[in-house]
Each structure stands twice: as structure tokens, then as C-alpha cells.
């Protein structure tokens, strides 16, 4: 399936783009993180990073479907 | 009542405080986040804030909803700015009104502490010799 990943903060620098179109078969957010960590080893150097699906933080078992809005969220630092 | 905003323009501190004041409020507690000139002894020129806007708004609303449920507060306002801010400028204002001060203090503290943990806003520190995304690396 084709999915679009939105990147923020340092993840934009790691992806070298504010968003990424990828074609992959991942069932859930955990599998997506695994795939991204393999493809972008810089992600593993972050303090942590989260996946958000449709504006909600995902757990590893949150399902991912084509058409979902998926964001990769590095450590937040608002305020 | 709740007022949440993510904005490019300067936060109007006086207007924020005025909005939370009600006849039943015996106290107003305000947190004014401010750009500091140093971090770990190093001179900071500016902070550049960006947000995942839709989710940042929904996470800030969650905080405000939770505050209303947990404490007897009258109003809570959270205004966060994005863009490049110089030393002394204000990235965030949180204002809480309540009949009594304990609720106002506790709720305001909870709101800023939680915002810093959950709201997808990211800041880059701009130094004389480079830039660093805050908290990105351990």
C-alpha cells in the first residue's frame, strides 16, 4: 500500500523532506517503526520517536491502513 | 470555558489574562513561557518553533479538558506561538482562573508540564555557530 508520512522537527532533517511517500506492507505502527529504523538509522539515535495515526499517538499495535494520516514525531519541546 | 490557539503572531498577554477573568474567579494563575538568552552556558540568539498543527491543537484541547475535569477552574486558556522568536519573546501563555488559588496554581502547573510532554511542537535553538533541535538526542 502507498502511505504518506509527515515529518516534523529533526525527522524532517533525517528524511530530508517534510513528507515522504512510501510503498510498503506494514500492518501496524510497530512494524512501520521497525522498517523506518532499518531505512533511516539516524532515527535510532533519537531519544525516542512516536508514530501518530490520524492525529492520535499510536502504540506498536495500532493498525495502519492506506489513506491514514501518519506522522513521525520526535521528542516534543514546546513551551 | 476553554480557549486554545496556535498562532504566528505575538501572544497578547493582557488579553489572555482578561479572557480568563470572571466574576466567580477569586484568582488567576498565569504561566508566561519566555525565550531565554542562554542554554547550558551557551548564548542563544533565537528559538524556532514548528508544530504539527492539527494534532498540537487537539493535544492542547485534551489538556484543557482534563484540567476542567480534575480541578474546579472557571476558565483555561492556552495560546502557543510558532515561528522564529527572539530572546524575551513569548512562545506560550497559559492562564487559569478559579474561585480559589490552589486549583488555579495546580491546574496551571499541570497544563504547562503536560504540554511539554505531549503536544507535538518542536523547537530549534539557534546559536551563533549553529542550530540544535531541543531534546532530540539523549
Keywords:
heterodimer; A: 79 residues; alpha+beta; Ubiquitin-like (UB roll); five-stranded mixed sheet; B: 138 residues; five-stranded antiparallel sheet; 41% strand; elongated
CATH class of chain B: Alpha Beta
| CATH homology-level superfamily of chain A | Beta-grasp domain
What is the average of the pLDDT values of chain B? 97
Q: Tell me about the largest β-sheet of chain B.
A: 5 strands, antiparallel
Look up the CATH topology of chain A. Ubiquitin-like (UB roll)
SS element count, helices of chain A: 2
- SSE order of chain A, as H and E? EHEHEEE
Q: Looking at the structure, what is the overall shape of chain B?
A: elongated
Helix content of chain A: 10-25%
How would you describe this protein?
The complex is a heterodimer of chains A (79) and B (138). Chain A is built from two helices and five strands; from the N terminus they run E-H-E-H-E-E-E. By secondary structure, chain A is an alpha+beta fold. Chain A has a single domain, classed as Beta-grasp domain (Ubiquitin-like (UB roll), Roll). Chain A has a five-stranded mixed β-sheet. In chain A, strand 3 and strand 4 form a beta hairpin. The longest helix of chain A has 11 residues, at 29-39. The model of chain B has no long low-confidence stretch (mean pLDDT 97). The N and C termini of chain B lie far apart (38 Å). In chain B, helix 2 packs antiparallel against helix 3 (101-118). Chain B has three helices and nine strands, in the order E-H-E-E-E-H-E-E-E-H-E-E. Chain B has helices at 13-20, 53-70, 101-118, and strands spanning 2-7, 27-33, 38-39, 42-51, 73-81, 83-86, 92-98, 121-127, 130-133. The longest helix of chain B is centred in the middle third of the chain and has 18 residues, at 53-70. Chain B is of the alpha+beta class and 138 residues long. In chain B, the strands form two sheets. In chain B, strands 3, 4, 6, 8 and 9 form a five-stranded antiparallel β-sheet that branches. Chain B has a four-stranded mixed β-sheet with strand order 1-5-7-2, sandwiched between helices. Classes of the chains: A alpha+beta (79), B alpha+beta (138).
Amino acid at each position: 500500500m502507498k502511505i504518506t508520512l509527515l515529518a516534523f522537527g529533526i525527522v524532517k532533517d533525517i528524511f530530508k523532506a517534510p513528507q515522504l511517500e512510501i510503498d510498503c506492507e506494514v500492518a501496524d505502527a510497530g512494524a512501520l517503526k521497525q522498517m523506518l529504523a532499518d531505512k533511516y538509522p539516524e532515527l535510532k539515535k533519537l531519544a525516542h520517536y512516536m508514530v501518530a495515526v490520524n492525529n492520535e499517538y499510536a502504540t506498536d499495535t495500532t493498525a495502519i491502513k492506506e489513506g491514514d494520516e501518519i506522522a513521525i514525531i520526535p521528542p516534543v519541546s514546546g513551551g | 470555558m476553554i480557549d486554545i490557539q496556535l498562532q504566528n503572531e505575538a501572544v497578547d498577554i493582557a488579553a489572555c489574562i482578561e479572557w480568563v477573568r470572571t466574576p466567580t474567579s477569586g484568582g488567576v494563575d498565569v504561566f508566561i513561557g519566555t525565550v531565554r538568552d542562554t542554554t547550558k552556558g551557551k548564548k542563544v540568539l533565537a528559538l524556532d518553533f514548528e508544530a504539527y498543527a492539527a494534532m498540537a491543537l487537539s493535544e492542547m484541547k485534551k489538556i484543557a479538558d482534563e484540567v476542567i475535569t480534575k480541578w474546579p477552574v472557571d476558565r483555561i486558556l492556552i495560546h502557543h506561538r510558532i515561528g522564529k522568536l527572539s530572546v524575551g519573546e513569548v512562545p506560550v501563555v497559559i492562564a487559569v482562573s478559579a474561585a480559589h488559588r490552589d486549583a488555579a496554581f495546580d491546574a496551571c502547573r499541570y497544563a504547562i508540564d503536560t504540554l511539554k510532554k505531549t503536544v507535538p511542537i518542536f523547537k530549534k535553538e539557534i546559536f551563533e555557530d549553529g542550530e540544535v533541535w531541543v531534546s532530540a538526542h539523549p
